[in-house]
Amino acid sequence: MPDSAMPIPPSSLPYYQPVADECALFEHAFRHRLPLLLKGPTGCGKTRFVAHMAARLGRPLYTVSCHDDLTAADLTGRYLLKGGDTVWADGPLTRAVREGAICYLDEVVEARKDVTVVLHPLTDDRRILPLDRTGETLEAPQDFMLVVSYNPGYQNVLKALKPSTRQRFLAVEFDFPKADQEIPIVAGESGLPEARVVPLVRLANALRALKGQDLEEGVSTRLLIYCATLIRSGMKPERAIRAALIEPLTDDPDIRAGLLRVAEITLG
Ligand SMILES: Nc1ncnc2c1ncn2[C@@H]1O[C@H](COP(=O)(O)OP(=O)(O)OP(=O)(O)O)[C@@H](O)[C@H]1O
Ligand SMILES: [Mg+2]
């Protein structure tokens, strides 16, 4: 942990329930200045994990959601016109390097190819960020860390990370928490008592078992929390389940009917 970081009371950290040794791995990576790649399905806790770890390590966090128009300049910065003058404005990656912060690039496989050119010298032992347009070369301080994530479920051949990029990162695979961990997470986030969350988690796991056959992706922890939140606020469970656990998964009427059937059988 950096000397400047004040210890943060656990109660003010973004809530994150560890599912394995991912917190220790993150701390080791941070201490040894190694970049980290998180893989996992949508809504399984990747973003929450990074927010939790950044707070725990006392570092500011810059999060960028990557998309297919995202260029290297969006990360590093650009000259802007301001009242007749041209002024340089740091992008989030540059700011994180200058401040010794954590930079989190979400869905990194979506970013344009020129982004990898920027990431490569920053993620090997050089740890530098050359800014061609200003002529500067920034050296990343001890406290800078790069974290990227993507969802291998959506990955296609065109969008895979190149080996020369992925082999610059430590990697950790995320999945949905096991039932005994997911129940307190959903109860804690929604306020619905654990006893009423138990059947919802059972249903989620029955629906997750259909992944790959009828469904592209299993129902997320995020959707389970939505469902429990609706029930907690007074909605009938059948209605909440349909709105939060069935409809978001598919547009196909036959598959939807099948999912509703699974819900009936699972919930009895
Ligand atoms: N281990 C966990 N501890 C605490 N909360 C969790 C955990 N896992 C999931 N959650 C809850 O699930 C929600 C969704 O998680 P999050 O947004 O981090 O998913 P994600 O993996 O980043 O998804 P995406 O790939 O779609 O961005 C969070 O808002 C949080 O409430
Ligand atoms: Mg996320």
Automatic annotation (TrEMBL):
The keyword Transmembrane helix does not apply. Residues 182-264 form the CbbQ/NirQ/NorQ C-terminal domain. Coiled coil: none annotated. Keywords: ATP-binding, Nucleotide-binding. InterPro entries: ATPase_dyneun-rel_AAA, CbbQ/NirQ/NorQ/GpvN, CbbQ_C, P-loop_NTPase. Residues 35-169 form the ATPase dynein-related AAA domain. It comes from the Bacteria. It holds the Pfam family AAA_5. Belongs to the CbbQ/NirQ/NorQ/GpvN family. This is Nitric oxide reductase NorQ protein. It comes from Azospirillum picis.
